[in-house]
Amino acid sequence: MKHISMIVVVGLALLAQPVAAQEQLGTGAPDQQYRGGWTFTPTVGVAETYDTNVALFSRGHVGADDYVATVFPGADLHYLGKRSTLDMGYSGAFLDYRTYSALNRWDQRAKFEVHHHESASLSWFGHATAALLPTTDLIELGGIPYVQNGAKTFNGRGGVDYAINARNTVTQSLSYQAVSFDRPDAAAAVLRGGRIFEAMTTWRRRFSERVAVGADYSFRRAIVSGDDEPFDYHSSQAALDYELSPQWSFRGAAGVVYLQQTSVTEGRLGPAWRASIEHRQARTTFHIGYVRTFIPSFGFGGTVESQDVGVGFRTPLFHARHIYLDTSGVFRDTQPLTGVISDPASGAVEQLPLRSLRVHTIVGWEPQPWMRLEGFYSLVQQTSLRAGGFIDRNRIGFQVVTSKPMRMQ
User: Fold this and answer.
1) Domain region containing 376
2) So what's the pLDDT on residue 339?
């Protein structure tokens, strides 16, 4: 078949949780329990991976498989205070292809996060991440074709939480996202890049310890490289947060999203939905979530309607505390709203639908608090629903990670 099997998706919906994709395919450094003050944590790891499609060729082309050795250093600096927390870190992964050495490159990521309580009713927060990625299948944005092309991403968000009284809380936040691609001239027809600015306001009224209702409003402006005008989106949703039990919780919202008219897009009004269910008990966690809305396409350009399903499951195995299973999956369906986009480099370009699937499974052993040994499997699939538009990539391997926190006076 030329499309992703929905049987696989339904099966994954019982098992997985959305996580940020990364080239070092294990879970990374062992979990740390921080104490008050400053903690510096260096990390180093090695991995060996077999990749069935290193060039991300579509089905029907001559494939290229290879073995990839990975070395990934990292460091984390964490501060835990009475009213503030701060976390910053770097992680890198050097990919060494045994046969196709021209693909050798770095996967690099940096993060910064801060949270401060000014008073019992007021707190503020900020976080930012940046990444240099070797392939586009590692980008957590819709409407981007998977190709062997490097990318740079940045995400930043900051805001304030204010408790009006014991029952009512308001959150105001501003966020910024940007993505750009290597070889812009060669990839201009299918990889545009761009920027998103968003302002979001949420209100919650708590009726009991278990139930809160409220409303969310956001304004988003997207600037897609090569498009003549920005795309403006307004989203309004009624929200419900419900603690079903001490272990189960539900978060959901429903409303509408409106795309303002531009010279290439009619004004559009569509449903906006999101819902998630989470379960936490001892060391076992489960999550399933769904989101539907309008988003910009930083691949072909224009705007798409996006539907995402993400599911996940993590649990100890064999009643052993140090042996675990961690599996996740994300399915995304993006349908174009714009049609044909005018591209200055290559003329008219058809905006294609994309269906994408990511699956990631880890079986790990933590013999010491500072070490993890993991075996992993990763599946990436994408189809444009056109002949020759199906991509399939499988990776399997193992990883060893060591990490040692050091208290700083």
Assistant:
1) 6-408
2) 62
Judge whether 1 lies within some domain.
no
C-alpha triplet 308, 312, 316: angle, nearest 5°: 175
Q: Quick check: 198 and 174 in contact, CB under 8 A?
A: yes
Neighbouring C-alpha atoms within 13 Å toward the C-beta of 173 = 19
Distance, CA of 335 to CA of 242 (rounded, Å): 31
Residue 278's CB: how many other CB atoms inside 10 A?
A: 17
Alpha carbons 307 and 310: distance in angstroms, whole number? 10
Kindly report the backbone phi and psi dihedral angles of residue 103, in degrees, each rounded to the nearest multiple of 5, phi listed first. Answer: -85, -5
Tokens representing residue 354 in the block: 């994309």
Report yes or no on 399 lying in a domain: yes
pTM: 0.84
pLDDT averaged over consecutive 10-residue blocks of the chain (409 residues)?
35 33 47 80 94 85 84 94 95 93 92 96 97 89 86 96 96 96 67 93 96 97 88 96 96 96 85 96 93 90 91 92 93 83 55 91 92 94 84 94 85
* Strand ranges for 22-150 from DSSP E: 37-51, 66-80, 84-97, 105-117, 122-133
d(CA 107, CA 114): 24
For residue 36, give the CATH number of its domain.
2.40.160
How far is the C-alpha of 328 from the C-alpha of 324, rounded, in Å? 13
Rounded to whole angstroms, how far apart are CA atoms 257 and 235?
A: 4
Other beta carbons less than 10 A from residue 348's beta carbon: 9
Of 124, 64, 140, nearest to 295 (Cα)? 140
User: What does the angle CA 179 – CA 180 – CA 186 come to, to the nearest 5 degrees?
Assistant: 145
Give how many domains the chain has, as a whole number.
1
From first CA to last CA, the distance across the chain in angstroms is 60
Q: Is residue 66 part of a domain?
A: yes
CB neighbours of 383 closer than 8 A, spacing ≥ 6?
2, 3, 4, 354, 355, 389, 390, 391
Beta strands in 320-405 (DSSP E): 320-336, 340-343, 347-350, 354-368, 371-383, 390-403
- Length of the chain, please? 409
Residue 40 lies in a domain: yes
- Longest CA–CA separation in the chain, Å: 64
Distance set, CA 268 to CA 172, 217, 235, 351 (Å): 26, 17, 12, 17
**Closest alpha carbon to 331 in 9, 17, 11:** 9
